[in-house]
Amino acid sequence: MRNQEFALKEKETGILRDVCYARMSIMNAGKVRAPEEIPMHRQLSMIAVRQAMEVFNFFCCAWTGNVEGVRRQAAVQESMGPHAGGQYYEGMIGAYRAIMAEQMRTDNYSEEDVYHLQRRMQGFIKAQKAPAPRTLYIADCHFYHGRLNTEMDRRGFASVEEMNEHMIRQWNAKVTSGDTVYILGDFSLAGSVQTSGILESLNGQKHLIIGNHDGRYLKDKTFEDRAPLFRSRQHYAEIRDKGRTVILSHYPVFSYKGQYRKDGEGRPLTYMLYGHVHNTHDERLVNRFIMETRATSVTSRYRPEPEPIPCEMINCFCMFSDYQPMTLDEWIEIDRNRREGMNG
Predict the structure, then answer these.
(1) Other Cβ atoms within 10 Å of 152 Cβ, number
(2) In this structure, how many other beta carbons lie within 10 angstroms of the beta carbon of residue 94?
(3) Of 10, 24, 116, 248, which residue is the least packed, with the fewest Cβ within 10 Å?
């Protein structure tokens, strides 16, 4: 989770105070006589950090003798009133350097300390702008499996190249570099070189749950050199996703671990995500099991009164999501809508 407040260390508080003091001094923009008169909090909001960055950008231009940069930064301040604007740039550079050099000696910090704080603030702003990282899931992409355009899935692409390009576009339109994607098996039918090329073109941090069609590239010993393209490779995994347990397997797991668990409001606490069966008769059989299980009420040591079993098995078949990895909540919605359509 990203922090919405920027925490200043003790030395950094002094640096920011001194830079603001130097800025106010050369602009004659206040009655402050000493840095200590400038109030400074240890926790800054996003707005305060943005405002501080304007001051730091001005300082950096002045400190490095960048006259044009000083002019541009001063021009930005013109809307702030009569004590700001381009007409003040003359003499600013020397005055700024003199004030900050004195403050650095007095407060015992260096020029590098100043720039380090600036970089920290820049990183904070960038992190707040970036979308929050997500955990996403998808199954049975079958890159390079051309027969699926005419058999079983009948995906309808004119060629395997067209199918691959479409899936890459769809993936990258959804996934950012900070996202984590769990691939629930049958990622590619190709060898190690072609599969590596696909992986390198896809955004996100990728984890493989091994399927029955992943053997060709995984068995190639040269693929070991490209192993970092998958952050992990395993046949089965249990992870946490926003307070819920997620069981991951290429194959559907009936009576999966934690199937009966609910929270205090009766919501399921465990989900079983799978692939392998695509949208075939096997998926229809799995659906029959799910519906019959949900219609069965049982008691337990936690729930003395009979209650339906929360059988939350979700097929993350790529065609169900238009070839895009989805979050758990999105798959729950896709699965719900799909079942309503089947029942309708």
Answers:
(1) 13
(2) 12
(3) 10
Q: Which amino acid is present at 53?
A: M
Q: Which of 301, 318, 313 shows the shortest CA–CA distance to 249?
A: 313
Cα 269 off chain centre by: 23
Neighbour tally for 85: CB within 10 Å:
16
Looking at the DSSP assignment, which residues form a beta bridge with residue 282?
Answer: none
Angstrom distance (rounded) from CA 209 to CA 284: 23
Tokens for 5?
């407040």
Looking at this protein, which amino acid is placed at residue 146?
A: G
DSSP structure class, residue 195: H
**CB 188, CB 143: distance < 8 Å:** yes
How far is Cα 337 from Cα 319, in angstroms, rounded to an integer?
Answer: 14
**Domain range 135-343, its CATH number among 3.30.230.10, 3.60.21.10, 3.90.76.10, 1.25.40.10:** 3.60.21.10
What residue ranges of the chain are covered by domains with CATH 3.60.21.10?
Answer: 135-343
Q: What is the per-residue pLDDT across 135-188, written as a single tens digit (0 to 9) for each?
A: 999 999 999 999 999 999 999 999 999 999 999 999 999 999 899 999 999 999
Res. 29: pLDDT tops 60: no
SS (H, E, C) 282-310: HHHHHHHHHHHHHCCEECCCCCCCCEECC
- Give the number of other Cβ atoms within 10 Å of residue 54's Cβ: 13
pTM of the model: 0.70
